[in-house]
Amino acid sequence: MRGGAATVSSREGFVVAEARADQTTAVLALLPELIEAVALPTRFLVAHLPDRPSSLLGAAACAPVIHAAPSSGFRGQCRVLEGYRRQGIGRALVTLLAADVAAWDVAHLLSWQAEAEGPAAAFLRAMGFRVNFGIHHFIGDYTTMKPVCERMTKALRRHGRIPPGFELLPLAQVPLEPVLALHCDEFNAEPAAAALAIERALADPLTCRLSLALWDGLQLAGYVLAGQGADMPEVRFWASDPAHRDGWAAMLLLEGYTDVIAACGLTQARFACNDRNLAPLNIARKIGARLESVRSGYVLDLPVPDLVDHDRDVPA
Predict the structure, then answer these.
(1) Cβ atoms < 10 Å from Cβ of 229
(2) What is the mean pLDDT of the chain?
C-alpha cells in the first residue's frame, strides 16, 4: 500500500480513526463478513465516542484483493450501529475507506455484497456509488416448474438444439478449475476466495446433492450451486458458459434441479439470476417463478473528491 488515508475527527460527537490492536475483536463483531475473507484488511477503520474509544459506533475495512469485471476493484464493508445512523458516521468511514483503496492505485471500491432496495442502497447511491450488476431472486414451485421444463427440454431436443455429449452430473464430480473460471467471470469473484467458498459449500451433504453441472468430459456448459436457505432450498449460483447461452444449458440445469428437489421431498426453491446472463432470467419468467427481490452490487469510481459533506443528511 502506498500510504493510507489520514485519521480524522469527523465532527463533534464522534471520532473516526485507525483501529488499535485491542479493538480487532470488536471490529470483527461489527463486520463478521471479514472473518472468511481470503485476505484480511491491512487496517480497520473505526468510529467511536471522543471519550470512549472502546465503545465502537461503526467500522469499515476493505479486503486488498482485486475482484474482476464488470468493474474491477477492492470490496469494502462498512457498518454503523443502528442507533447512530444518519449522523455522518458512515459517510466519514467510507470517505477514508475510498482513500485507502485509491492509495493502492485501484480504480474502484465495490460494495461487499449485492443490496436490496432500502437504506443501504440509498446510502451507497448518495455517496456516489453506481450499480455494477443486478441479481434477481425468484421463488419457483415444482408443480409449475416441472411441466414447463419438460415441455421446453423436449422442444430443444426435437430441434437439435442440445449438443451431444453433455451429461448432467453432481457438481462435486466435475473438475473445480472450469467451474471456478466460469464462476469468477460471472459473479465478479476472486479465484482463491471463490475456490474456498465452493469447496466449503460442497462439503455440506445437502448442498452436494442439490448442486449440478453440465459436463462433456472436457467442457463445462453450466452449473448450479444450491443449498438450504432459511426456509427452503436456494440456488446460490446459476451460470452458463458464454458459448452456451442460447437457453439449452440453463434449461437442462433447471430441470435437473427440479428433479433433485422433488427427490428430496421438497416443493419450492429459491434461485437467483445475474442480469448479465439473460437465459436464466428468461427461463424464470417462462416457468412462472415469482420475483421476490432484486439486489444490486454497487461500485464507486476512484479517485474521488472529498466525499464528506456536512450539509447533507445521508442515511448511514
Answers:
(1) 12
(2) 86
Please write the tens of the pLDDT for every residue from 273-309.
778 777 778 888 888 888 988 899 999 999 744 544 4
Predicted TM-score (pTM) of the model is 0.71
**Calculated CA dihedral for residues 44, 49, 50, 56, nearest 10 degrees:** -30
| Grid cell for residue 304 | 474521488
Q: How many CB atoms lie within 10 A of CB 82?
A: 7
Q: Which amino acid is at 10?
A: S
**How far apart are the C-alpha atoms of 305 and 316, rounded to whole Å?**
19
Query: How many angstroms separate the CA atoms of 63 and 80, rounded?
Result: 18
| CA atoms of 196 and 202, how far apart (whole Å) | 10
Q: How far apart are CA 301 and CA 225, in angstroms?
A: 31
Query: Residue 20: what are its φ and ψ, rounded to 5°?
Result: -80, 165
What is the reported pLDDT for 284?
A: 83
Span of 35-39, 50-54, 122-126, 158-162 with lowest mean pLDDT: 35-39
Most confident of the ranges 62-71, 245-254, 267-276, 293-302: 293-302
261-274 pLDDT, tens digit each: 889 888 888 888 77
Instruction: Give which of 224, 220, 196 is closest to 210, Cα–Cα.
Output: 224
What's the CA gap between 254 and 238, in Å, rounded? 9
Q: Residue 155: count other Cβ atoms within 10 Å of its Cβ.
A: 11
In angstroms, rounded to a whole number, what is the distance separating the alpha carbons of residues 294 and 273? 10
Helix (H, G, I), strand (E, B) or coil at 258: helix
Residues 11/88, Cβ–Cβ less than 8 Å: yes
Rounded to whole angstroms, the Cα distance separating 316 from 310 reads 13
Contact at 8 Å (CB) between 16 and 8? yes
Q: Hey, which of 112-116, 216-220, 286-290 has the most confident mean pLDDT?
A: 216-220
Which stretches does DSSP call E strand in 229-310? 233-240, 268-274, 290-301
